[in-house]
Amino acid sequence: MNIKIIILFMLIALSSLACTNALDLDSATDNLTDHDAHNIEAAVEPGNGEVLGKENDTVVMASESQASNLSSKDSASSAYLVIDNDADKENIVIGDYVTWTVSVLNKGPGNAKNVKVFDKLPEGLKYITHKTTQGTFNPKTGIWDIGDILNGKEVFLYITTLAVSAGEKINKANLTSASVNLNNETYEAEEIDVFDNPKENHVKHHADSIMPAGNPIGLILLSLLACFITFLKK
User: Is residue 190 scored above 60 in pLDDT?
Assistant: First the structure.
């Protein structure tokens, strides 16, 4: 059989398979019950929930049912607290300084009472100094005693450290509050790498900057497809 005819049959078979998958998807959509459609509409209906904030492109919402279950007294003593922990450098060498920024944001609806953060520095990082926008920090215990955080307010702790040993360093921050915290995520960690000398640091940066070349199998298939198309046109 002519090779062109064989290739043509293969292309027709692939097209048929793609059409079949599309029809299956349409069929699955048509089979949605009225109850499923109602649930989908309710999930996206404006006003179905109160947007409390947005973190990493994820909208945080409190539904009307949750709000109705909270009395006015409970609402006043509940708060959605978001903790963050960042380092100003990711790769350093022994003798370099790194500053950690720990923050707590209160998204409401009430004020947060007696908020504390436990942030014990990892081994190999020597404490140098710190400053806070609210509360007091004890570098020996690692406790940042913030106190009350008003609705909508964000507070910060800055800790400057000196790298005295090499290795992976993970700084962990844990949040506690006397008020009901509507956010279940009360832990935040940040990791950096400390190297013995600048050469190792340079190698790390170079490795991180290398972009993946892509899937070689996919490139080969695309090349073969281009050759087939050119051959059929002849």
Answer: yes
How far is 27 from 11, CA to CA, in rounded Å? Answer: 25
Q: Which of 168, 192, 184, 165 is nearest to 85 (CA)?
A: 192
Which own/partner pairs from 170-173 qualify as long-range (CB within 8 Å, at least 24 positions apart)?
170/122, 171/85, 171/87, 171/100, 171/119, 171/121, 171/122, 171/125, 172/85, 172/119, 172/120, 172/122, 173/83, 173/85, 173/102, 173/117, 173/118, 173/119
Retrieve residue 141's tokens. Answer: 């215990």
DSSP-assigned states of every residue in 186-207: -EEEEEEEEESSHHHHHHHHHH
**pLDDT value at residue 65:** 40
Segment (H or E) for 123: none
Instruction: Determine the angle formed by the axes of helices 216-233 and 3-30, rounding to 10 degrees.
Output: 120
How many whole angstroms separate alpha carbon 108 and alpha carbon 102?
19
- Dist. CA 179–CA 176, nearest whole Å: 9
**Structural tokens at position 5:** 């005819």
Helix (H/G/I), strand (E/B), else coil: 179: coil
- At residue 4, the pLDDT reads 60
Cβ 156 vs Cβ 84: under 8 Å:
no
How do strand 187-195 and strand 125-132 relate by DSSP bridges? unpaired
Residue that wins the pLDDT comparison between 30 and 100: 100
pTM over 0.70: no
Residue 124: which H helix or E strand, with range?
A: none
- 2-6, 163-167, 200-204, 223-227: the lowest-pLDDT one: 200-204
